[in-house]
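Here is a typical protein record:
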Amino acid sequence: MARKIWVGIASLAVLLLLCVFWVLGTDSGTRFLLGRAEPHLPAGLTLGTASGSLLGGICLSSADWRTDSQDVAARNICVDIDVAQLLSRHLAVRSLEIGEAAIELRETTASESPDSLPTIESPLRISVASSSLQNLSFTREQLQRDVERIEMSGSLHGSKLDITRLVVRSSWLNLDLDGGATLAEPYPGRVNVTWQWTESPSLEFAGNLQLRGDLQRYELNHTLNSPQRLVTQGSVSYSAERLTLDLANTWKSIKWQFDESLVRSSSGLLRVHGEPTRLQLTLDALGQLDELPETRVMLDGETDLESVRFSSLSAANELAQLESSGIVRWAPEPGFDIEYVLSNIDPSFASDQLQGQVNLAGTANGTLRAGEPELVVLLSKADGIINGHALDGSAEIGYASKQLLVSNGRVRLGSNRLSLRGNAGDTVSLYAELDAPALAELLPDVAGSVSGVLRLDESQNIAGDLDLQSLVLRDTEIDAARVVIDGSLDQHSIRTQVNGLGSRVTVELSGAVADNGWTGTIDGLSLSNELAGDWQLREPGTLTASAQEFSLSRICLDRSLETGEICTDVTMLQDRPTAFNLEISGLPLAQLPLSLPPDITLNGFGDMRASGSVVDDRISGDVSLSLRAASVDAIVDDEHLSTGFDEASGSATLSDNRLEASLQLVFAEGAGNTRANLRVDDVLDFGSAIAGSGSVAVNDMSLVAVFIPGLSNPSGAVNGNLEISGTLGEPDFLGAIAVTDGAFGVRQAGIDVTDFNVQLSQSSAGRLKLEGSAKSGDGDIRITGDTWVSADTGIRSEVLVTGQDFELVHLPDMQLAASPAIAMVFDDQTTSVTGNLLVPVANIRMKRAPETATSPSTDAVVHSDDAEQLSTRRRIDVDIAVALGENVSFDGFGLTTNIDGVVRLRGGTHEQYTGNG
């Protein structure tokens, strides 16, 4: 009987072992277990087909969990568990792999946050040696993110969670995390995180986070390394269901690029403390916008879930100071209400000609209602001093319903005043009145007066009258100018007349404002000038001007009574080639704004043709220039001097920015000629190659007297040549120019210079050589010099002047000769003059003192700016020994005597001149 019992027990044990093996080691057993467990799974969770076993590893084809707030789907799930560890209440997962997963979150009415923090206590010890998730897709409303890979290893023992490794890799987020925590009060823990978030190819964020502590106080240390370096230190605490933050954010040398502007901050501190629903903000930072001065910004305020309220926001730099307070809201309707005071504004920021101080005060408020902004800016007071004159003004600016409104705008500076009011939007109206009898009070470089009124009513009728009198702007003087406009925006006329500089210009236009621009007709255009004559518009032309287009049809000005015309047309369209044409015939050369010496005029007529186009900053076109009956004339001591040109012409061709140009001048009566040509590969690129040459040959030096009237009877020849190479930004010149067999008289000195020969040459890049000689009286003079030019060392010249008995003056009452031996050195900062000067002959006879000679009073004080200029102007050092020879005499004021001796003259700009001898 006992044997049968033991046999039965053994058989049952074998059967149990077979059952355990069948459950743990076969696919059928796995499906049996899942079938038994399925009724106990959470609602909405369904499992797909299973394969494998608990001993060898289980794989599920899918797992889906659907709730009101989320859908979670996973595919190809494989898990390998160490079953033996289950006997010791240890769920040891050797590996867990999920081939694909998707998570979709939906908005629900249920609260997503628990009322209190949960406590987790696992009855088993759970460990995961290795796990990975591939191809995770996360979706929430319009947001969708894909993660390529997630890997994790760690353990949970009771409430103690330890994450050995958590790795996330994707195109937008890379994260590495390790740490541990106890999932029960007071939730002590530690976390180390390194992360990288790529928002776009040009915007990437990266940082490191360390968190230590428990709910009473988590110590936080975070460093943002990209795109800027920002350090955040502080604490986060949670007590009595209240979250409290105390974080200090500090930075050094950060910058942001916004379109065309660059914002930089050299240092700053932003402290945030309090509960998320009521945070206190404190800011102290140094910032700079583009090239504006560095500004210190300080803020004291608080923020909640709907607004930021600041009791003080200040900004100060060397140009101005801002003090403001107010509130900025983003809920329920975005808006702001701010009071501001801008003080100590430096007006030189707008123009160097404006000096003084300006103060502004007022309010600004705005709201965004139904997507439409409403704004009111009140400038309650503007005062201060500009260029010594009092400033006073105020204005109110509003914007609502797509309509801009300016009311009660007024400004007065000294005796000048401006009033302005109006609106712009679906309808436009404007009233502006200007009365500026003293423009010099506004800008020191401007003189004269201007007054006018402009009216535009809601019926779009427009009337304006602007009058300028005695206007002086730098070197330009306008005796009078007037602009009158009358009509409506749809059809109006504009008449302008300007008198000044010996000219009168009248322009008559008619047209309309349309499509954010102006289009109309030039009905009349006339120019009257004493030298240029009278010019009249041949026939009307059309003119269109807007942000997208500027076009002028062909118009011509004809010269009255004489042959001459100027014709032009221009077309400039956005994203299309610009085309232009200009034709000038019979233009009087005397009217050209040339800087010629006094009593010298350029006479004759000029003809020019220019046409071309501009496409994507590439220029193509042709220019030709010729002069007719051209001459240079001068009057010297009632003597008329003139030199004419048989030919004076030039031409240039531009093809896709490549320039080829030439110039020819042929003097009349075979006096000589000059020719030049130039090629530039790209006129808009300073690094482009250039090549050219030039020559001059003059065998009749009489024309020199035209340009240097103080010379008489000049003769000799001038010959030279020049080769140009290198680049447009750094050209190289090689060549020489020489005057040979020259002779001339100097009218005011009464001397005749003969055997005048001088040559300036450059045989190698960066070095010029000067050689020359001349005779005067019984003596001669010689000059030699070298000049070195270098981008690294600058310019340096060494010149030596030597001579013997060279006659400088030969007049009835004065004769003077000199024998110099002087060395001169010039560089970028200093001029040095050293040597000896012998005066062998000097006879001076003075019959009476000049009429303008007066003696200063004994108590006169002479003021000079020399003391201030010594430190800034070019340095000059002089050390010359002056010796008087035996034939030096003075006869005047009842005194007749011979003078001899040696005086050493020393000094310069940085040392007073002294004479010893």
Summary: Helices lie at 2-25, 27-37, 704-707, 866-869.
